[in-house]
Amino acid sequence: MPILKVKEIELYYEEYGEGERYVIQAQQFINSHLNYVKDLAEKEGFHGYIIRIRGYAPSTLITEDLGESWYDVWAQDVCDFADAMGIDKFFYTGHSHGAGIGWHLCVNHPERLRGFFASAAGPHKKDGQATGGARMETINAAKSRETWEPYAKKQGAYCAKYFERVENDPVIGEEARAAREQMIQFWIDMPAVSALLNPRKPFPKCKTEEELIEVLKNIHVPTLMLGGSEDTISGPDLMVRTLRAVEDSKLIIYHGADHVDLPNRFREEYVKDIVTFCEERGLLE
């Protein structure tokens, strides 16, 4: 189990491929069997790292509330990880909260990024609620074991529903079964301290849409946003708003995909569209 000591914490990570075309993803969890970073490494010559962010085992668990600083801290952890690995510039990709980390990288550390591939990117709408509804469901369920156990089983099955649908596929069926089991087990085994973690929405200091848009206008990292037409958490309307604000950005919406299906169901399309985006902008030279 690869663990890297980074300053005062330890980060679990998985590595795919080799070479200097680095792409980093940071999430609370990504399955080890079917994911687009692995495909980018195995099929397109990227050197991929997927980091388990602080707060989620086997990375260091966090008992303190970092308030409005969670995404800034996670973004700094990505840069510290890259430094420890001897990586100067890298592509970053993330889904949902992982994309939130990417937006903070774009603002806080743009000099480190060759490009940003943002899946279900948002950022969340500034609607007066500091924390998104899906996150609050998890936090509320984690307040007792009686509510957590059925919630975790349900959430694990929901997050793994794409893998269940393709378990009989002659090419990826075995990997899909392993991915489904790993996803469900992650939710069942999640410690309460992780389930109760509340990072708020990205850019928590922005209280209105107007304030958020002004922050997004200052991002100049080449950005590809990948979204699902049926996503109720990071819907197409939010990403169109972001597209209008972020210079040198591109948006692709995949028909019929919701928030959890998106990066799994369209894994192969992600790889093709990411490579095309990089080629269009000369980012692979």
UniProtKB/TrEMBL annotation:
Protein species of origin: Hominifimenecus microfluidus
One function term, GO molecular function aspect: hydrolase activity
Matches recorded under InterPro entries: AB_hydrolase, AB_hydrolase_1, AB_hydrolase_fold
Pfam family of the protein (one): Abhydrolase_1
Keywords, sorted A to Z: Hydrolase
Residue ranges annotated for the AB hydrolase-1 domain, each copy included: 37-121
Annotated protein name in UniProt: Alpha/beta hydrolase
